[in-house]
Amino acid sequence: MNLSSFLQDIAKYTIAGAGVVWIAFYLIKPYLDRDEKIQLLEFRKTLSSQTMPLRLQAYERLVLFIERINPANMLIRLNATAFTAIELQSLVVEDIRSEYQHNITQQIYVSGRAWGVVKLVKDDTLNIVANAVKSLPADASGLDLSKTILGYLSQLEDNPYDVAAGRLRKDLEELF
Hints:
By secondary structure, the protein is mainly α. About 80% of the residues lie in helices and about 0% in strands. The chain contains 6 helices and no strands.
């Protein structure tokens, strides 16, 4: 047996072996892909079962945030009659920012749309308070500021805090 015949035999067996491996791979590949998809679905199911309670809690906390910064609730909690308008404004701004900072990590668990609603209601509340203070005389009391803010809110067709909480509830319903 000469060397060229030996090399030809090796080449034939190598090509035939590679062909068999290639055919076997493409016969087995659908089963491997299916197994990978099953594992991925199981992982997602496990992840979902772990994160769903956190997501529900985040929506719950954000609805609570909206209720806490609602001037109708906040002004009572802060005892508006004990302060001047400027002092009350300072307390309101501090309270809103504190509540917001306390809940800022919840954005990880809620949709971008839901978090946008929360930011918008926070910013709108700060603007309402700032505009109310600007409309009052310098020596106005906290009670005057409260009346101005609540009067402005009563003139609105829809309560923005109810609308925001409703949007969060709608967003949450889309999870189920």
